[in-house]
Amino acid sequence: MKAFTYERAATPAQAASAVAGRPGAKFIAGGTNLLDLMKLQIEAPVHLVDVNGLALDRIEPTPEGGLRIGALVRNTDLAADERVRRDYGVLSRALLAGASGQLRNKATTAGNLLQRTRCPYFYDTDQPCNKRRPGSGCSAIGGVTRQLAVIGGSKSCIATNPSDMAVAMRVLDASVETVRPDGRTRVIPIADFHRLPGDTPHVETTLERDELITGVTLPKPVGGTHVYRKIRDRASYAFALVSVAAIVQRDGSGRVALGGVAHKPWRVEAAESAMPQGARAVTARLLADAQPTHENAFKLQLAERALAASITQARS
Amino acid sequence: MHSPTTQLISRRDALIVGAATAAAVSTSTAPSASAQTTAPAAATAGGSRMKLSLNVNGTSHALDLDTRTTLLDALREHLHLTGTKKGCDHGQCGACTVIVDGRRINSCLTLAVMHDGGQVTTIEGLGTPQNMHPLQAAFVRHDGYQCGYCTPGQICSAVGVIDEVRRGVPSHVSADLTARPILSAEELRERMSGNICRCGAYSNIVDAITEVAGSRA
């Protein structure tokens, strides 16, 4: 690990100022992804601003009937919150499908949104990677691609977003709240938060470098049956090959987002009008622009079948 | 300009000084005054250092550490509590699991400085050979290990699992999110999936935890 200096922030805006004032500085919250990457020198911040002491660890009702989740609410606590379990089951299920009990005890809501890809070529520092070294090339294209993106990729990057939680946040239409060093705040719809790789795959979100996430807001509950179905190579503690976050209403209408297929949680609202016709009709639209490799084309059929199973489960 | 010999000696001296200052300052002292500090650590040639205090197994320790020191390395290399094991050092195996402020975490994926003033329980704090924790005794009775390397992490994790179930935290395999979770073998396998045992003692580990958790239910 490269040497770094360390400080504890007193307020959210002061944390943002501390990062703004130091090139190469980063926020640290749970640290479960950042420290892993620092040990491999994929991340090498010169200064860490610890935000764990900020009072951003509460889950509170909003005036609109939704929930505001503090940035530092741990994944375990979010999954176990009574209101989340009752009204936003897809979020509880997605969180519980990710990582291990130990990691969920440490990992935060904001950190989960910012976790970086598990593309093996991003982790292998001997290989070119446009995320790790912009402009160096993509080793995944033409490499082993079974785990990688089938849609939304580019000539620069075919990595996937590894988060389960973010897929549920996408299907729930969550919004991300942030603060800047001067105290200015903004709200970013989750649909606009993660970026497609394009020719700048190292820029993964629409956050500015010195912008701190303070919370995530869920709109009023939409009812329906909530399902998160994750398909992976092990029964537990593995990243998704494909995952489905679905909310199915009694009349057969509903919402769907996919994980494990793209650089961001994959949702196409226009495809959801086909929900009453079933999974094949939905995925035909949802994955219409897919460009899989011969190694990961199976994900298209897997997504359709996982959605079919999710709809069956919701209706049973 | 220094001669090569002078350079060699000063480098060696520097290394000796570095090693001495890296050692734990003392044991059983009061929490350091640095507990509430927000000042950045001063940068030094070998890396930046910070003072912190950790309460480990009921004893307070004042430490002066390179900021890069993980909680795992602070426990093993500085406090010489080698019961906590380093397996993968990347949060994948669970051998380093300890209980911090009442929750099981991977001590390899957190910095010691992030836990200034924190309460840590390691396997040494759960029981002793003469006075074993019920889970330690159950692991022995059920042969819940072969080489034993993952065992301290398994036991610390199991303590956390039992507490999480008691608090009603659901899991991936809980059929009903709103019901109180039960401690079935399926639940234990899922909840313990962050602890790898390469000897494959899993079925006996589940039996050991079931015996203890069952007796508390």
Describe what is shown at a glance.
The complex is a heterodimer of chains A (316) and B (217). Chain A is α+β, with helices and mostly antiparallel strands and 316 residues long. Chain A is 28% helix and 18% strand.
| Count of distinct strands of chain A | 11
Number of strands of chain B: 6
Q: Give the count of helical stretches of chain A.
A: 12
In DSSP terms (H or I, runs of 4 or more residues), the helix count of chain B works out at: 7
Question: Which ranges of chain A are low-confidence, i.e. pLDDT below 50, for 5 or more consecutive residues?
Answer: none
Largest sheet descriptor of chain A: 5 strands, antiparallel
Oligomeric form: heterodimer
Shape, principal axes of CA atoms of chain B: globular
Helix content, binned percent of chain A: 25-40%
Distance between the termini of chain A: 51 Å
- Helix and strand sequence of chain B: HEEEHEEEHHHHH
| H/E topology pattern of chain A | EHEHEEEHHHHHHHEEHEEEEHH
Question: How can the largest sheet of chain B be summarized?
Answer: 6 strands, mixed
Give the strand order, joined by hyphens, for the main sheet of chain A: 4-5-8-6-7
Mean pLDDT of chain B: 85
Count interface residues per chain for the largest interface: A-B, 40 and 49 residues
Range of strand content of chain B: 5-15%
Alpha-beta classification of chain B: alpha+beta
Structure description:
The complex is a heterodimer of chains A (316) and B (217). Chain A has 316 residues and is of the alpha+beta class. Chain A has helices at 12-20, 34-39, 75-80, 82-87, 89-96, 101-106, 109-114, 120-123, 165-171, 190-193, 279-286, 298-315; strands at residues 5-8, 25-28, 47-50, 59-61, 67-70, 175-179, 185-189, 212-218, 225-231, 242-248, 254-259. In chain A, the strands form three sheets. A five-stranded antiparallel sheet of chain A has the order 4-5-8-6-7. A three-stranded parallel sheet of chain A has the order 1-3-2, with helices on one face. Chain A has a three-stranded antiparallel sheet with strand order 9-10-11, sandwiched between helices. The longest helix of chain A has 18 residues, at 298-315. Chain A is globular and about 55 Å long. The mean pLDDT of chain A is 98. By secondary structure, chain B is an alpha+beta fold. In chain B, a hairpin with a 2-residue loop joins strand 4 (97-100) and strand 5. Chain B has a six-stranded mixed sheet with strand order 1-3-2-6-4-5, sandwiched between helices. Chain B contains seven helices and six strands; from the N terminus they run αβββαβββααααα. Classes of the chains: A alpha+beta (316), B alpha+beta (217). Chains A and B meet through strand 1, helix 2, strand 3, helix 3 and helix 4 of A and strand 5, helix 5 and helix 6 of B.
